[in-house]
Structures are given as structure tokens and as C-alpha cells.
Specification:
The chain is mostly beta strands. The protein contains 1 helix and 8 strands; from the N terminus they run αββββββββ.
Length: 119
């Protein structure tokens, strides 16, 4: 090989690390603010993996786990879940944490929503 020549070596699996940017979970709720007893319609999309198992954890404003579920996305990566804000909920931010494995990488996304107790 002449001096100054560049050798390109492609290793299997290396391209996956560059493709990781395109792998994500997008979360959405039907509204941002809820009252105790309201039903939350959670929808999401896993990009980069179809039929993925998605672990969901919902924590109240005190950090207490109020729901844990595993759902499976469809062939387009879409998934959904409905759950109720507990009638005993106190005002504050609730966190939804979604995790899945996409092409061998663990991907996690968090969404915050607010529960408001009327005075």
C-alpha cells in the first residue's frame, strides 16, 4: 500500500452503533394536566424496532410506583396504554418511564405530566 493511502476496515456491528441515533421511544399523552380519577391515554412509538416489548413505569409526584406494565408495539412500532390517576393522588408531576431494547441497545424515554388536586 502506498504511503498516505487510507485503508477502510468495516467490522460487522460497527454500523449499528452509528445507527443508534435513529433508535428512540416517543411518548405522548392525551393531555398534559389531569385531575385525580382521570384516565390517561398514553401512546408511543418505538423507532428502529417493530414488535418491541416496552416496559412502562408510572410514578406519582412522591416517586411512588403506581403502575408497571409491559406492552408490545405493533409492526410499525406503535403502542398504547390507558390508566387512571389514583383518586388519592396529590398535586405534582407524574413521570412515565418507557424502556425497550432496540438492536441490542437499551433505550429509555421519560415523559412528565401534571396532576392537580382541586382546592
Amino acid at each position: 500500500m502506498p504511503l498516505g493511502a487510507v485503508m477502510l476496515l468495516v467490522l460487522p456491528g460497527v454500523l449499528n452503533s452509528f445507527a443508534q441515533e435513529e433508535q428512540s421511544i416517543v411518548l405522548d399523552t392525551n393531555k398534559e394536566h389531569y385531575l385525580p380519577g382521570d384516565t390517561v391515554q398514553l401512546s408511543g412509538t418505538v423507532t428502529g424496532q417493530s414488535n418491541a416489548l416496552v416496559a412502562l413505569q408510572i410514578k406519582d409526584s412522591s416517586g411512588n410506583l403506581i403502575l408497571i406494565r409491559t406492552v408490545q408495539s405493533d409492526q410499525n412500532g406503535n403502542f398504547g396504554l390507558s390508566f387512571k390517576i389514583p383518586s388519592t393522588a396529590s398535586s405534582g408531576d407524574f413521570n412515565i418511564v418507557a424502556s425497550t431494547k432496540i438492536n441490542g441497545f437499551i433505550v429509555t424515554q421519560t415523559k412528565t405530566m401534571t396532576a392537580t388536586v382541586p382546592e
